[in-house]
Amino acid sequence: MKIRELADIVEARYGDPQAFMVNLRNWMHESKITQARLGVEAGFDPSNINRWMRGHISCSLKNMIILDEALERILDGQEVESAHVVG
User: Structural domain of residue 77, as residue ranges?
Assistant: First the structure.
């Protein structure tokens, strides 16, 4: 992957912190994940997540990536739990 392609991907996903937080809030709501749960997985105080989501402070690129990866780990864990229940 070329540097420019990677830069385009990062810009599309994380370029607008407010849009990212709106998307994050929607993903959390759809998956029934609380700010507290995400905070534990990401290593952040839930009050910081709340301030980012409300737009009181801007979330850095580094923290957006950490939140994104934490949400992915939670969702992956939910899929594993669902498979155990069904199977």
Answer: 3-86
